[in-house]
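Exercise: predict the structure of this protein bound to copper (II) ion.
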Amino acid sequence: MGMKFVVLVVIVLVVIAVAQIMRVYELSTKLSGKREEDIDLRVNNINASLMLAFLLVFFGSFFYMLFEYGRGGLPNAASEIGLEIDWLYNLNWWIIILVFLLTNTLLFVFSWKYAYDPKRRAHWFPHDNRLEMIWTVVPAGVLAVIIILGLMTWNNITGPASADAIVVEIYGKQFDWTARYSGDDNKLGYSDYKLIGSAEDTTTKATYTNSLGVVSKNSIQWRIHGINQEIEKLHKQIDDEAKGKVAFSAANLNKMLAKVEKLERIRERIITMIDLYEPEKLAYANDDFTAKTLFLIKDQEYFFVLRSQDVLHSAYFPHFRAQMNCVPGQRTTLKVKPIYTTQEMREKTNNPDFNYILLCNKICGVSHSNMNMAVVVGTKAEYDAWKVTDGSLALTDSIAAPANIDIKRMVMPEVNHHGGDHDAEGDTHVEGGHPAGNGH
Ligand SMILES: [Cu+2]
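Solution:
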C-alpha cells in the first residue's frame, strides 16, 4: 500500500517536471525568435526514417505474438461445432490481419514518403463522393458477411437438438459441477429449488441428499420428511428453552420461531407439488443419475441443459469451443458433438496427459478458479462400462423414502411455547418490544 503510494507520487512528479521542461523550451524558442514548428530538415528526415523502422518492428512483433500465442495454447477443435467456430475465427483473423497490414503500411510509409519538403506544394483535395462510397460500402459488406455467418453458427449452437441427441444436465453451484444424465427415457426429471436438502431415515440411518432439487415422488416425500425433522429439532430446542434447560437471547428465539414458520410454509407448497405434476412427469426423474465426471460418447450429439443454484456461472468446454452461461432460475442449452476420444486427442496432441475439461468461465466467487469437472470422451462400450462401475454414479431415486412420513400434518403447531411471552396471534413480543430478526 505504502509502496504503491510512493510510486504514484513519483509518477505525478515526473509528469509535472516534463510539463515544466516543455514550458521552458517553448518560452526559450519564443525568445530566440524561432517558431515552434521550425524543425531542422535533417532532424525531420531522421524522424521520417524512424517511421519506417517502427513499421518493421511493429509488424515483426505482431507476427511473433500471433504465432507464439495466437491459439491461446489450445489444440485443434474436438467437436463438430468447434470446427465451424474455428473456421469462423480464422476467417475473422484473415480479414483483420489484411486490413491491419494495409492500413498500417499506408500510415507509416506515407509518413516517411511525405516527410516535410520545402519545395513540395500540397494538393488541395477536400472531398470525393466515390471514395466516401467505397469506404462505407466495403466495410459494411464485410461486416454483414461476418455477422450473418456468426448468426448462422449461433443458431446452430442454440437451436433444437436432433432426435437422437442425449440429454444431460450440467448443474453449477459455488464451486463445483454436477452432471445429471437423463437415463433410459432420455428425459430429465423436473427440478424445484424447494426440494434441495437432505434427510435421514432414522430406522435405517440412510441419508438421502437432493442437491439438485430433482422432482420425483420419492424426492418430494424425502423433502417433507427432512423438513419435518428440521421442524422437530427446532421445536425441541424451543421446548428446552421454555423448560429452562437452555437459554437463548430473545433475538435468537425469534429467529427460530420465524424459521419454523417458514419451513411450514414451504412444506405446504411441497405437499401440493404431488398433485401439481402428472404421475408420468414425476416419473421422468426415476432413472436420472448424477456423476462427478462427464463421460461422453464419440460422434454422439449431446443436448446440455444448464442450470445454476446460486450465481451466474458459465460452462466452458475449451476443446469443444463451446460455452454457455448458467443462470439461476433459468435453463439454458448447448449442443455438443465430440469427434475425438480422449485417447485420440492424446495421440493428436502428442501429449499422453491430455484430458478434456469443463471450466467455469464467469468469476463467481473466491474458489471460482477451482470450479471444474473432468470430461472423458470414449466409445459407446466404454461409456456403458463406466455407467456401471463409476463410484460417484447415483440414481436420484436410489434410496426409497421411509414409509411412515407424515405428509398430512398441516396444522400449524402452536408458536407460544414460551410461556406468556407470545400473544394469541403467535406474534413474538419479548420484554415489551419487537426484537430484531422477527420476520412476521
Ligand atoms: Cu462458477
